[in-house]
Amino acid sequence: MGDDLVQRTHWGNLEGQNWAGLARLSTEETEGEISSDATSEEAGPRFITGRDIKNTEEQERNGRGFVGSRGGRYVHTYTQPDTSAWKRKRVRLPDGSLGYCVVRPVFEGALEDLKRGKAPNGERIDGLIVYDIDRLTRDPRHLEDAIDTVEHYHRPIIHITGTLDLLTDNGRAMARVVVAMANKQSADTARRVRRNHKARRDRGPYLLVGRARSDGRGITTPVTA
Question: Which molecular function terms from Gene Ontology are attached (predicted)?
Fold first, then answer.
């Protein structure tokens, strides 16, 4: 279908198209916000991302509904549970040297399948849908890989929230800005988390114990563990 496929997707017409979804949920503590149910002193604070997203199943359900409502057919889901789209790891590069990059084999495999037009289950795929741009990536390198898939292989990648797109020049320019800011946000959060952990280590282990006074007020007394 070539450019026509991207153009039709831009118009919101997915009739006759097969779509796959990429569902990512991260509990990487360097990416998100403090979870309200994380109160264990031993476990430390638990951080989550995409607070409007409960789980990967919900992302898949939303993707199916979005594609179906526009006449398309949803045929496969690439699932990435507990996967960071930001944190870089030390890896061996093809030339034998060491480097740092975000490791996401499912994401990379999804792009390769999309270029070939075939999902792991043998179904033809014409496009890839995610819930939001930060479910796709928070890494500028991976964003460029996604943009190349759209521009040079003419395979659309869209997301449900509709605030950005990779199908137009303006949309791609805005996506680069948003991913750069999301990358900075993750770096800022990581720095705060590291400082918080260091401060807790420097203070040493302690337990907070509440005690009620006769006047009805409570106090909190540090007790050495």
Answer: DNA binding; DNA strand exchange activity
Provide the angle, in degrees to the nearest 10, between the axes of the packed helices 140-153 and 169-203: 160
Residues in Cβ contact with 163 at an 8 Å cutoff, skipping those fewer than 6 apart: 133
- What does the alpha-carbon distance between residue 78 and residue 80 come to, in Å, rounded to a whole number? 7
CA torsion angle 8 10 12 13 (round to 10): 10
User: Is 130 in contact with 136 (CB distance < 8 Å)?
Assistant: yes
Count, residues in the chain: 225
**Which range marks the domain in which residue 80 is found?**
3-224
pTM comes to 0.70
**Residue 87 CA: distances (Å) to CA of 45, 92, 95, 158, 219:** 18, 16, 22, 23, 40
| Alpha carbons 48 and 9: distance in angstroms, whole number | 31
Q: How far apart are CA 217 and CA 89, in angstroms?
A: 50
pLDDT in tens, 33-54: 433 333 333 334 444 444 455 6
Looking at per-residue pLDDT, the higher value among 82 and 31 belongs to 82
Mean pLDDT, rounded, of the chain: 76
Query: Which residue, 23, 24, 26, 21, is CA-closest to 186?
Result: 26
Q: What is the CATH number of the domain that holds 154?
A: 3.40.50.1390
For 206, the enclosing helix (H) or strand (E) is strand 206-212
Question: Which residues, in sequence order, are bridge partners of residue 157?
Answer: 128
For the chain, the domain total comes to 1
